[in-house]
Amino acid sequence: MSDKIKVGDYLIVQRQKYMKLQKFNNLNTTVNLGKDQIELKLAENHPYHTTFHLVPKLERGKRQFTLDALSTPSEIRNLKELLIKESGSDNRNITDDRQSQGLTTEEILKLREECESSSEVIGKLVENSKSFATKTEYSQEKYLKRKEKKYFEYITIRRPSIRVLCDIYWRLDPEKVLGVRFDTLSQIVSYSGVCSVGNYLLYESGTNGLLPAAMLNSIGKETGAKLVHLHPGNVAQKQALMAMDFPAEQLGRCVSVNIYSVIRHYYQEKEQTNGSEAVVEEVKEAVKTEEAPEIVDKDETTNGETKKRKLEDDTENGKTGGDGEPNAKVVKLEKDKQMWEIENETAAGLMKEKFDSLVIVAKEHPYSILKALLPFVKPSRPVVIFSTSREILAECYVDMKTEAAVTYLRLTSNWTRQLQVLPNRTHPDVTMSGNSGYLLTGYTIG
């Protein structure tokens, strides 16, 4: 993991409080912040957390910028000290008639092209405002922050972290991470007991890789712990996992496999085919949704068809053993095993050893998934189930109580209130999320 920005990295581009995740694919990569298009090529080889000045390109009518690294962040000027010279006692005589600004829209656009910095533009706006001097100091600060947000010409490039990624995904669309907010994510990791020792089992059905990234981050690098990441699709979502840029050694201890395929593989190795079919079908019914494609088991399609075709060809050509069976050397597939087969074998091996905790974050009803995966968890180990529906977890609570496979069951929810804490004006945020789903936690019984 390099301390400098390089091509291929995922970057967090921050302008004031706004943050965006962007992959630095090549030197021609650009990032769009509102209407502004910013070229990233000059950021290469600069340290992370460098603040850059946005330099406009000489193309009229287009808001395109290149980057110029600042020698020190102190180059960003304090608008409050520069522009607030006198203030009014209250705002009762100020009328919002949209006539207080003396500059027209065309003149403001011309200012943006002529001025070298946003501070100059905002200074001109303040000079031509008829009501700025009569506003209270608090109102003046709000006005400057609003204008600074619009004309701010600095960005900071940061390295992705679990906290920042979770905040970005949540702000864009909570459904993309199944409604998992950062405080809930921290509780999931805490309840599951993920650490640098042991093997851990995770099932998630679409969080952009946030859950496996958070658990692998807690496992740490150069440790002996391993994570089996089960998912319902053909390919796991791994954007957050890739964005964290874990070392290859650490990333290699996270095995992502299809839940149906690995369960069937595990039971077939134990020669319990009938039992495996029943378990797989039950899980398929539980996780089948309209959005998810029908999963075709690769053991049947790839190996089954290949072996069948090979057997037919060999039988026609007379290549059989003494008992009428195909010769072992002929039946053996000449090509190497595919990656998904190797991952299935690795995951099945860990399932035999059993796991130190089980985490389920699913948009489907989790009970059938829980029943299928609970036998692979050691006694007295934590079980954590997340859902956006309290009623679904209440049903699981009752069923688990009845079966007596898990004890110390607790159904909880998070409700976080964010506060703005400033002198003489501390209050809750006006817009905030009320609920971030529900957690059902407990411990397995031996």
Automatic annotation (TrEMBL):
Provide a GO CC annotation, any one.
tRNA (m1A) methyltransferase complex
Localization? Nucleus
State any GO BP term from the record. Answer: tRNA methylation
Q: Does the keyword Signal apply?
A: no
| Keywords of this entry | Nucleus, tRNA processing
- Give the protein name, as stated in the record: tRNA (adenine(58)-N(1))-methyltransferase non-catalytic subunit TRM6
Family, according to the entry, reads as follows:
Belongs to the TRM6/GCD10 family.
Primary location class: nucleus
Organism equals Anopheles sinensis (Mosquito)
Q: How does it assemble?
A: Heterotetramer.
Describe the function of this protein. Substrate-binding subunit of tRNA (adenine-N1-)-methyltransferase, which catalyzes the formation of N1-methyladenine at position 58 (m1A58) in initiator methionyl-tRNA.
| Region span, Disordered | 289-327
List, as start-end ranges, the regions of compositional bias called Basic and acidic residues. 289-301
